[in-house]
């Protein structure tokens, strides 16, 4: 008997332009199969787009490099035939006499003809729809199978407006689209799991089925604990499709799923299986599921949209996401890096912008794991969730088509919580030039079909927070009405769970909530409606430019409660510019002095094409890079840009958090990353190297945070979470240490404020800074704030500022580059296969530690295993290198000293990891990416020490080297 299983066909594909293939699909899959990558056939990128395949085979230049994208013909000019391609592969399968096999396409855009062993099937149209074909009678059960797919681009691909835009427009019984829903009672002590699944009987007789649902949770040691096992008998008529709802499963005090920073992301594994009498096991489906309830309403105080998870309000700090790669060369590994980066920044929401795609299940899987709420704006593209065929299913990765020559100025969508948007953006229809279809999309029924498919694909993920109809506009009336009706909330999710069990008596009279299309999340018609921006769609999001850091704290900066898009600069490091542009793109902007004393930045054409955002706004904001002095070359410009990136984004989030609940309920930054080599609004570049803005956000978005209000000069403490497992909902027995330093390494001010109590979910002003109002002023100074737990002096939050007096600048930092501050770095490497972890203890040795104060040691508090802050049992982690880690291989300690004789702050230190090569070529990019750092772009006061962890994977045959640089360590020193 053949085995039941799934098989991915994501390698071994060939592709060819349809006009260059003189054979029919029948001939290709019978007598004239291509034998290999021989003209016109080439190796294909699957998953990926046609353009990705052409790039891989060097038939078009890399559209992400320099201005090469301009040389690629757009589908609007070439016509659809030019980007209509054949895809071909072979596979083997072995079936027993009673087994069935389905051919599953995870996503195709836009339509296709499928040929298997000479048999033809036409797939219906749609944006990245799932398709499943029963090919039991077609496959060769003991031989090679020939598969050819002719993929057509959209019927009406559209044209980019002249001013640019944001994008274009067989087993006996099979399990289909199960739906999992949890409902809570008695203040979350009791929960029910509701399960409904589709069943399809492909046979010609009644199928007598044993339908099972198994719920398990993982315990220590890799063992699983069975929480529930239930079996039901179901009869399915021949050729029928039925929906079956299990009796609800009861849980008492289950582990809950929490967003990033609020608690553990507890997940249960739910497995549904079906056995057919006379056939045995027929199909199996499983999914990780988190028990959580998301509530959302318009806040009466701020007018902004307020989210609650498990009854607790969540102050939203996140960003907008487009997609991982513009050519859809997507991988599980890249998704994991993307989502972990967002978690590392302490973000708790990602908005999946509607001009992108409804992300693949792998994206949502990592959002579930890392606790990111996803808010999909537009359901743009449908990705199927795993294969759902019985016995011997064959799963095809998406055969994506990317034909148009993007102007690549589009916007994006995102994670933690995830908000998922549907594909209403108005760039080609409605608001395009010319307006081609004001009632777009063209096919309303097809749009709704794709929307429903996307809901079924994503609805079981706990990280998915809400559905949104469109970006900065609403869908046409008929589509909007249909979405409102089909995504309406079940009554379970219209009441507060805190009300006890009195409501439970009426629920048996209602439909089971798992029978709804969703029923658990709200639908909002547009990204600026109903608690977002002004709530009326009047383009009140933004701005998207550089700001004075103190502006974010002022009353008049943004007057609405929740901003879904506010953007700024995003210049990457110099190595990325050199890696993605030819030398003519390395020219830094010209600084043009205007008559009103402002400066206009004039970027080179390549930067302008890649959507560079200037660090000045003539008439409103003086150039923030020139505050540090005129840059001399690309390296100097990018280093100063990182200083501004850090300050800009830390101030943005700190300004919003300063008014948490009193003025704002949340903010989403435009945007987190780029799906290409863009130069605007990003915290890491397309190569996965972080900007300093990444670490500015990481600091500002801490769940417990100490900060300086740049408008009032009050030191504030933010406790953005419910402090769990304590007798009171407050942060008590904590203290703040304040120290100020001049450029000569002198401590100008030192004070400790002890025995403080901070209420949970509040921002509390603690005291007003005396300096810089005191007499001993210096034009440029450093401020170090530390919030620590008094019992063990563990650091809860550390925040380092560089500041200048009103009306001044940072130009005195330019000669500070010459100050040679000594460092001592003790490091240890742990290796497990290709995975490397490095622990580095970094100390500024320019001054001997003073045992009379707390300044010098950073013993950071770590969250417990649940991700919660249990203040009653907080324990500081010593910054010294720990004993050898269990498992893997550990190298001996290595000590590196950076020579210097002067006392001062080691300013803006940053590490990077490189591949060591004996034949290194001048200008070659040797960076190993991605790297996860516990901190980077940090500064150490005289005598201060810190522990920094790095983790990364090393390609085969490569020896890694770690380098440290800084403002006053600019030549670079090799640590390992």
Describe the structure concisely.
This protein has 976 residues and is mainly beta. A hairpin with a 5-residue loop joins strand 32 (704-708) and strand 33 (714-719).
Strand order of the largest sheet: 27-26-25-22-21-31-28
The profile of the biggest β sheet is: 7 strands, parallel
The overall pLDDT average reads 86
Radius of gyration: 29 Å
Quaternary state of the chains: single chain
Helix content class: 10-25%
By DSSP, the count of extended strands is 48
Q: In percent terms, what proportion of residues is strand?
A: 25-35%
Judging from the principal axes of the Cα atoms, what is the shape?
globular
Structural class of the helices, strands and pairings? mainly beta
Q: Total helix count?
A: 12
pLDDT < 50 stretches: 166-170, 377-415, 724-728, 882-886
Distance between the termini: 55 Å
How does this model look, in words?
The protein is mostly beta strands and 976 residues long. It is 12% helix and 33% strand. The chain is built from twelve helices and 48 strands. Helix 4 (332-344) packs parallel to helix 5 (361-370) and helix 6 runs parallel beside helix 7 (477-486). Mean pLDDT is 86; it is low at 166-170, 377-415, 724-728 and 882-886. InterPro entries: Beta-gal/glucu_dom_sf (IPR036156), Beta-mannosidase-like_N2 (IPR054593), EBDG/EBM (IPR043534), Galactose-bd-like_sf (IPR008979), GH (IPR017853), Glyco_hydro_2_AS (IPR023232), Ig-like_fold (IPR013783), Ig-like_GH2 (IPR006102). One of its GO terms (biological process) is carbohydrate metabolic process. It comes from Rhododendron griersonianum.
């Amino acid at each position: 008997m053949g085995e039941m299983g799934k098989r991915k066909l994501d390698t071994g594909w060939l592709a060819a332009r349809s006009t260059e293939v003189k054979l029919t699909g029948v001939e290709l899959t019978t007598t004239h199969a291509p034998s290999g990558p021989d003209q016109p056939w080439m190796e294909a990128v699957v998953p990926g787009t046609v353009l990705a395949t052409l790039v891989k085979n060097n038939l078009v230049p890399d559209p992400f490099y320099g201005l090469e994208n301009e040389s690629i013909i757009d589908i609007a000019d070439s016509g659809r035939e030019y980007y209509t391609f054949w895809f071909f592969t072979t596979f083997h399968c072995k079936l027993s006499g009673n087994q069935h096999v389905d051919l599953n396409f995870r996503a195709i855009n836009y339509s296709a003809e499928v040929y298997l062993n000479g048999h033809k099937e036409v797939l219906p149209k749609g944006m990245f729809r799932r398709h499943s074909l029963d090919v039991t009678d077609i496959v060769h059960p003991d031989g090679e199978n020939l598969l050819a797919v002719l993929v057509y681009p959209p019927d009406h691909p559209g044209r980019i407006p002249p001013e640019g835009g944001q994008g274009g427009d067989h087993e006996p019984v099979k399990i289909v689209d199960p739906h999992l829903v949890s409902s809570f009672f008695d203040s979350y002590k009791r929960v029910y799991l509701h399960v409904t699944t589709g069943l399809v009987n492909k046979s010609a007789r009644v199928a007598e089925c044993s339908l099972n649902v198994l719920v398990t949770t993982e315990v220590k040691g890799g063992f699983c604990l069975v929480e529930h096992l239930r079996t039901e008998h179901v009869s399915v008529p021949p050729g029928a499709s039925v929906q079956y709802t299990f009796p609800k499963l009861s849980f008492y005090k289950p582990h809950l799923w929490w967003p990033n920073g609020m608690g553990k992301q507890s997940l249960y594994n739910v497995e549904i299986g079906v056995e057919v009498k006379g056939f045995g096991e027929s199909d199996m489906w499983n999914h990780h599921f988190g028990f959580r309830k998301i509530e959302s309403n318009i806040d009466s105080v701020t007018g902004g949209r307020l989210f609650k998870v498990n009854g607790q309000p969540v102050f939203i700090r996140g960003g907008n996401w487009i997609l991982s790669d513009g050519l859809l060369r997507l991988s599980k590994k890249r998704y994991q890096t993307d989502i972990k980066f967002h978690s590392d920044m302490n973000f708790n929401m990602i908005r999946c912008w509607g001009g992108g795609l409804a992300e693949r299940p792998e994206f949502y899987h990592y959002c579930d794991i890392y606790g990111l709420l996803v808010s999909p704006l537009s359901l743009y593209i449908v990705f199927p969730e795993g294969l759902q065929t019985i016995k011997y299913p064959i799963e095809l990765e998406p055969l994506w088509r990317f034909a148009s020559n993007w102007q690549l100025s589009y916007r994006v969508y995102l994670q933690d919580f995830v908000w998922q948007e549907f594909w209403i953006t108005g760039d080609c229809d409605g608001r395009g030039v010319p307006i081609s279809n004001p009632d777009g999309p063209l096919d309303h029924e097809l749009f709704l079909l794709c929307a429903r498919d996307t809901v079924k694909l994503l609805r079981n993920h706990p990280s998915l927070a809400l559905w949104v109809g469109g970006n900065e506009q609403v869908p046409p009336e008929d589509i909007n009405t249909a979405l409102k009706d089909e995504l309406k909330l079940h009554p379970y999710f219209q009441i507060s769970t805190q009300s006890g069990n009195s409501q439970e008596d009426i629920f048996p009279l209602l439909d089971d909530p798992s029978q709804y299309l969703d029923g658990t999340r709200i639908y909002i018609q547009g990204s600026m409606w109903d608690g977002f921006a002004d709530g009326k769609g009047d383009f009140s999001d933004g701005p998207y430019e550089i700001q004075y850091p103190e502006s974010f704290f002022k009353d008049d900066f943004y007057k609405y409660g929740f901003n879904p898009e506010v953007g700024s600069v995003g210049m990457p490091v110099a190595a990325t510019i050199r890696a993605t542009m030819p030398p003519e793109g390395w020219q830094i902007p010209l600084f043009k002095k205007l008559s009103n004393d402002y400066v206009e930045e004039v970027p080179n054409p390549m930067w302008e094409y890649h959507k560079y955002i200037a660090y000045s706004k003539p008439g409103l904001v003086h150039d923030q890079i020139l505050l540090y002095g005129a840059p001399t070359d690309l390296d100097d410009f990018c280093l100063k840009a990182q200083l501004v990136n850090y300050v800009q984004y830390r101030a943005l989030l700190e300004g919003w958090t300063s008014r948490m609940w009193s003025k704002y309920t949340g903010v989403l930054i435009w945007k987190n990353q780029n799906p290409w080599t863009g130069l605007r609004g990003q915290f890491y570049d397309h190569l996965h190297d972080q900007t300093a803005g990444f670490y500015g956000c990481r600091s500002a978005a801490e769940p417990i945070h100490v900060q300086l209000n740049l408008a009032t000069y009050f030191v504030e403490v933010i406790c953005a979470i419910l402090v769990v497992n304590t007798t009171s909902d407050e942060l008590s027995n904590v203290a703040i240490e304040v120290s100020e330093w001049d450029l000569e390494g002198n401590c100008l001010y030192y004070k400790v404020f002890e025995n403080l109590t901070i209420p949970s979910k509040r921002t509390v002003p603690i005291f007003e800074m005396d300096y810089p109002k005191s007499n001993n002023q210096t034009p440029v100074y450093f401020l170090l704030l530390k919030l620590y737990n008094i019992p063990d002096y563990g650091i809860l939050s550390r925040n380092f500022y560089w500041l200048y007096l009103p009306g001044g600048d940072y130009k005195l930092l330019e000669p500070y580059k010459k100050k040679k501050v000594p460092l001592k770095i003790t490091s240890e490497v742990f290796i497990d296969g290709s995975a490397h972890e490095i622990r580095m203890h970094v100390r500024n040795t320019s001054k001997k530690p003073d045992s009379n104060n707390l300044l010098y040691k950073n013993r950071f508090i770590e969250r417990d295993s649940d991700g919660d802050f249990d203040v009653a049992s907080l324990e500081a982690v010593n910054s010294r290198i720990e004993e050898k880690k269990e498992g893997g291989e550990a190298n001996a300690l290595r000590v590196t000293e950076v020579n210097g004789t002067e006392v001062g702050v080691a300013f803006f230190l940053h590490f990077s990891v490189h591949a060591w090569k004996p034949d290194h070529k001048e200008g070659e990019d040797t960076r190993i990416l991605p790297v996860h750092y516990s901190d980077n772009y940090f500064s150490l006061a005289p005598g201060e020490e810190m522990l920094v962890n790095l983790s990364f994977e090393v390609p085969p045959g490569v020896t890694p080297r770690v380098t440290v640089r800084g403002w006053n360590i600019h030549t670079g020193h090799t640590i390992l």
